[in-house]
Design goal:
The structure is a single chain. The protein is an alpha/beta fold. It has a six-stranded mixed beta sheet with strand order 3-2-1-6-5-4. A four-stranded parallel beta sheet has the order 9-8-7-13. It has a three-stranded antiparallel beta sheet with strand order 10-11-12.
């Protein structure tokens, strides 16, 4: 096995936490060599990801490449998914032949999308977390609109023009608002009728933004969702039980219901990163979700 002999400070994850840690250490003239490892080649400025989807901003503004951000910094960027962290020997393994030894390790992996045991959710839905997600969703939506404008079958067109967003947290609400503004415009540009487009939020709770720091904005957000290019439909108290290709099932008031939608986007929250779960750290040093409890000193 090829083991790197230099002992580095390794930062796993290039989101806000990881990238800003790198930039801060460089600013402080930190003497250790630094490696930043992230499976993606681009940093995602998530608050503007909606503007990338709507084509108001381009990729270089919202998702710059790490190689550009770290140019002349002396920081080594490794585009790879970490396979294993060995805390005992202080090594990070990224493949069967490549690993790095470290003196200091920063865990900034972030939290992956949580599917919470819902059958078919991972396989049959879009996520919206990074550059690749935004571009994939944009292409898919435009493809659906193009198919819709070409069909004379009203039922098929309704299916193609229906977008279901599962989850009414801040990300789900903001995405719904964005799509309710831009998708009708895209469709009208093709010659379609904007009122045929449906954007629907499906939420297991009775309110949007519930239990979140943005809870105080519920009324404002609800009004905003109704005052888009087309109003966003809200399906509350609906717990999704199964997702198939372009169809989801949910339970509400002990009744089983379903919705046909050519586009289903999963925005229900996150779960603990598998790498963090796999670390040999006692449960009393974790929270109830399995995340590591961090001291004020980090």
């Amino acid at each position: 096995m090829n083991s790197n002999s230099n002992n580095y400070t390794i930062i796993l994850g290039g989101g806000f936490l990881g990238l800003f840690t790198v930039l801060h250490l460089r600013q402080q003239n930190y003497s250790h060599p630094i490696i930043l490892i992230d499976k993606n080649k681009r940093f995602t400025f998530k608050p503007l990801l909606y503007d990338l989807l709507s084509q108001e901003l381009d990729a270089s503004q919202v998702c710059p490449r790490y190689t550009d951000l770290l140019e002349d910094s002396g920081v080594k960027f490794v585009p790879a998914a970490v396979q294993e962290i060995d805390l005992h020997s202080q090594k990070v393994k990224i493949s069967s032949t490549q690993e790095y030894s470290y003196d200091n390790l920063v865990l900034a992996n972030g939290s992956p999308t949580g599917y919470f045991g819902v059958k078919g959710a991972k396989e049959n839905t879009f996520t919206f977390r990074d550059y690749e997600d935004a571009i994939a969703l944009q292409k898919h939506l435009i493809n659906c609109l193009q198919k819709a404008i070409q069909t004379t079958d009203a039922k098929k067109r309704r299916h193609l023009l229906t977008v279901a967003i599962v989850g009414a947290g801040p990300s789900g609400v903001e995405l719904a608002a964005t799509l309710a503004d831009v998708v009708p415009n895209w469709y009208m540009d093709m010659g379609g009728v904007k009122q045929e487009v449906r954007i629907i939020i499906i939420n297991r709770g009775s309110e949007i933004l519930s239990g979140d720091t943005n809870e105080c904005f519920q009324k404002t957000a609800q009004e905003a969702l109704q005052n888009r290019n087309i109003p966003v439909e809200l399906q509350m108290n609906a717990s999704v039980t199964k997702v198939e290709s372009q169809r989801l099932e949910f339970e509400r008031n002990k009744q089983h219901e379903s919705l046909e939608a050519a586009t289903i986007i999963w925005m229900t929250g996150t779960t603990t990163h598998p790498l963090i779960e796999s670390l040999p750290i006692a449960s009393e040093k974790r929270d109830k979700k399995g995340r590591l409890q961090v001291l004020p000193t980090l």
